[in-house]
Amino acid sequence: MNAVQLDNISKSFGNVQVIKNISLSIAKGEFVSLLGPSGCGKTTLLRMIAGLEGATSGTIHIGGKDSTRLPPELRDIAMVFQSYALLPHLTVLENVMFPLRMRKIGNRAEQRDRAVAALKLVQLDHLTDRRPRALSGGQQQRVAVARAVVSSPQVLLLDEPLSNLDARLRESMQEELILLHRQTGLTTVFVTHDQEEALSLSDRVILLNGGRIEQEGAPKALYSVPRTRFAASFMGSTNLIDAELQPHGDGARALLSDGQVLLLRAKHSAKKRATIMFRQEDAILAPEPDNAALSRGALIASVVTQIFLGARTRYVLDLGGHMIRCLAPAGQFYAVGDKVELKISPDSIHVLED
Ligand code: ATP
């Protein structure tokens, strides 16, 4: 049985359809991120799972139970909002006890024990008597997380919970969320527009585009092999090149506009124009090859600019009229205008569907 099951879910506001026939299963204990640019519908989808928005069509099952028409309080879910939404007149402890009181779960002593245990999970059990205004943003966020997990819901829904935190705090909260998930085993749905955050936290990433699922998969798969131009651009650090694809032995070759050739592992039976993609870290730079290497088909590019990043240097290169980006170890230096050899494994070059 899946923790969450969406079947053919659509949502329209007036005559604008913002969620378009999405079907999705989330397994018990899974950590899934809904990722996509602003306006793609991720918050709306999360709010529909929570019951805060009704579905225009389709069904939603939570813990195997048809919950499509159930109000939020009757769905076994808890949600953490970007704004934390703590009650200012209650202490930290009372805020965390609040959902147990509302649902009349246990007596006061039991509620207290459970709230303290939840606060321990987020390392805030020493601040039980503080009011929210006397806490930092990160601490308020942790209280909101403790309040969400205290009733051990079937599903924990997180709507960009880290976006109000500064970069350093955000990183440590990401680590805490991973630990929390490991300790509680709660099925978690996490909304974010930050691809790095989605990749580092999730078992599975659902990439949304215009109210539809563009691609879904394990973080590594989505990062390494995006299927479409949208997915490749959104996942970042990719090079996209339009080329002519030709069958070649067991694989294929991509002919660039200056006549240079890239070899690909994937087989392609017919000649066609296509977008090929490789990641910037998969292109290895080497000094300009000699004539013998050139006759073996070494790939030549020229340095347009370089950006020092500390441990590595990013080079922008002109490869047959295409601007591409590559990463090189900091010790390796090429000057603007230098000719360099580019080595890219045929396994690292992928053909996009559109
Ligand atoms: P963001 O990252 O900016 O929060 P999102 O991917 O979460 O974006 P949603 O908030 O789900 O996107 O919005 C999806 C679309 O639905 C947007 O075009 C938005 O303007 C529209 N929308 C959302 N809520 C409503 C509403 N209550 N009434 C009308 N349109 C809405």
UniProtKB/TrEMBL annotation:
<dbReference type="GO" id="GO:0005524">
    <property type="term" value="F:ATP binding"/>
</dbReference>
<comment type="similarity">
    <text>Belongs to the ABC transporter superfamily.</text>
</comment>
<dbReference type="InterPro" id="IPR050093">
    <property type="entry name" value="ABC_SmlMolc_Importer"/>
</dbReference>
<dbReference type="Pfam" id="PF08402">
    <property type="entry name" value="TOBE_2"/>
</dbReference>
<dbReference type="InterPro" id="IPR008995">
    <property type="entry name" value="Mo/tungstate-bd_C_term_dom"/>
</dbReference>
<feature type="domain" description="ABC transporter">
    <location>
        <begin position="4"/>
        <end position="235"/>
    </location>
</feature>
<dbReference type="InterPro" id="IPR003439">
    <property type="entry name" value="ABC_transporter-like_ATP-bd"/>
</dbReference>
<dbReference type="Pfam" id="PF00005">
    <property type="entry name" value="ABC_tran"/>
</dbReference>
<dbReference type="InterPro" id="IPR017871">
    <property type="entry name" value="ABC_transporter-like_CS"/>
</dbReference>
<dbReference type="InterPro" id="IPR003593">
    <property type="entry name" value="AAA+_ATPase"/>
</dbReference>
<keyword id="KW-0067">ATP-binding</keyword>
<keyword id="KW-0813">Transport</keyword>
<keyword id="KW-0547">Nucleotide-binding</keyword>
<dbReference type="InterPro" id="IPR027417">
    <property type="entry name" value="P-loop_NTPase"/>
</dbReference>
<dbReference type="InterPro" id="IPR013611">
    <property type="entry name" value="Transp-assoc_OB_typ2"/>
</dbReference>
<protein>
    <submittedName>
        <fullName>ABC transporter ATP-binding protein</fullName>
    </submittedName>
</protein>
